[in-house]
Design a protein that fits this description.
single chain; 81 residues; alpha+beta; Ribosomal Protein L24e, Chain: T; two-stranded antiparallel ribbon
Length: 81
Amino acid sequence: MANFCDLTGKGPMSGHYVSHSNVKTKRKFLPNLQKKSFYVPEIDRYIELKVSTQAIRTINKKGIYQYLKELEKKGEIALGF
C-alpha cells in the first residue's frame, strides 16, 4: 500500500540524513498515517480510511461529513455513497 493519506493526499517527502561530518545521505520522511473507521450518521454507515493525524484533528473539529463535503466541493475527492 502506498503511503498517501486518503483525504489530504500527504505523501512521503525526501531529504537527507546529515552526519556530524556534514555528509548527506538520502532518506525519506514518511507521513504519520493511521487506519481509522469513521461513523457517518448522515449515511448511516462506517467508512474506513487511511488518514494522516492532521486529517484526524480536522475531522474531530469539523465532523467527518462536513469535511468530506468540503473536499468534494474543492474537487479533491468524489463522494460515492
